[in-house]
Write a structure and sequence with these properties.
Blueprint: H1 13-21, H2 31-44, E1 55-61, H3 76-86, H4 91-99, E2 102-109, E3 120-122, H5 140-159, E4 164-170, H6 175-186, H7 202-221, H8 230-237, H9 240-254, E5 258-261, H10 264-276, E6 284-286, H11 295-301, H12 318-336, H13 340-343
Parallel strand pairs: 1-2, 1-4, 2-3, 4-5, 5-6
């Protein structure tokens, strides 16, 4: 599976900067909005960017590692919340309504039969992953299938006219693979990558560390994982919803779409995506830094400065949705503000 992702061209950067500097304001006075506008203009290769038909992908999947007690929430919460989303009752529903996002609820690997709910797109690969304490979470074929799910979902959004993709997840236990990806891809000690997840206490965090440490040791000793390529690491520890998110990010970058990255888990997916194609980073806007241990350090490794730090830890992509008005403001700034000449204001710098 190959992706043709081009690094953003710098050809227009000087013209974009000149347009922003000529808006009727002190030079640099709109701070982060200006850098956002430059990035979006470079993604779309235009001086007049647009935000069209924003789409939010909510990807659901269960994790075999949850059986080891690494989460305070039982796996049944995954399917219960997926059903709740079809009724419009989740945080993700509220924020999608507020900000005009088209919401797709997708079962990529939930351990429950959700086919009776027409509001859920059925792309189930299996009823949860294998327990990566003992074996790879998925086969290579299943990993490629999950990547394809993400590709297909982005293609469907693009065909509707979308140029903004936001991705969220629902999967009890998915901070565990995220922590391991962070440890391996950032070369950081595992204990610096593990946090409370959905609300573990100190004893729960210690137990989580012991389980994940053993899983890593087993991985390193496995005769089938002597070559620890990014794809091998993604396959061995990932969740179906997480791998689908990676596929979605890579395809969105290939199509020159804006990619909104949410909290800890989606940042881990973004990190994994950059291990496969470094240029995908150019298309990402990191929207929120949560309180999960290590999230700030993972963002730093990606040289990412998040737009918000609201203490959110819900997942579902809610941080990305909350940040969308800031992105909208950046686009409105470059398109709607007068310049000095048309405003009849003396340019004083």
């Amino acid at each position: 599976m190959t992706f043709n992702i081009q690094p953003l061209s710098s050809v227009m950067t000087a013209d974009i900067q000149a347009k922003i500097d000529n808006l009727n304001k002190p030079k640099g006075s709109l701070g982060r909005l200006e850098t956002l506008a430059i990035q979006i203009c470079r993604i779309q290769q235009t001086l007049s960017p647009t935000l069209q038909y924003p789409c939010h992908l909510l990807l659901g999947g269960d994790h075999g590692i949850e059986r080891e007690g690494v989460s305070v929430s039982p796996r049944a919460v995954t399917w219960q919340q997926m059903i709740n989303f079809t009724r419009g009752g989740g945080g993700v529903n509220m924020f999608c309504r507020q900000h005009g996002f088209d919401l797709s609820i997708v079962d990529v690997g939930v351990d429950y039969d959700l086919t009776a709910y027409p509001g859920i797109i059925d792309r189930k690969i299996a009823c949860g992953t294998n327990n990566f304490l003992h074996e790879a979470a998925m086969s290579r074929q299943q990993m490629e299938q999950a990547l394809q799910v993400g590709i297909d979902l982005v293609d469907a959004c693009h065909q509707k006219g979308s140029n903004v993709i936001s991705i969220g997840e629902m999967g009890i236990g998915n901070t565990s693979p995220s922590s391991i990806w962070m440890s391996l891809f950032c070369n950081m000690p595992l204990d610096e990558c593990i946090g409370a997840g959905a609300g573990l206490n100190n004893e729960g965090i210690r137990h989580k560390y012991q389980v994940l440490s053993q899983a890593l040791e087993n991985f390193h000793q496995s005769p089938n994982t002597t070559h620890h390529s990014p794809l091998t690491i993604i396959q061995y520890f990932g969740g179906y919803e997480m791998v689908a998110a990676i596929g979605a990010m890579l395809r969105a970058a290939e199509l020159h779409l804006i990619i909104l990255i949410d909290g800890f888990i989606m940042t881990a997916c973004a990190l994994a995506a950059t291990q496969l194609h470094a240029a995908v980073r150019d298309y990402m806007i990191f929207t929120h830094c949560g309180d999960e241990s290590g999230h700030r350090r993972m963002l730093d490794s990606l040289q990412a400065e998040p737009l918000l730090h609201l203490g959110l830890r819900l997942g579902e992509g809610t941080g990305a949705l909350c940040a969308y008005p800031i992105i909208d403001s950046a686009v409105r700034m470059i398109n709607e503000m007068n310049d000095f000449e048309h405003a009849n204001i003396t340019k004083y710098f």
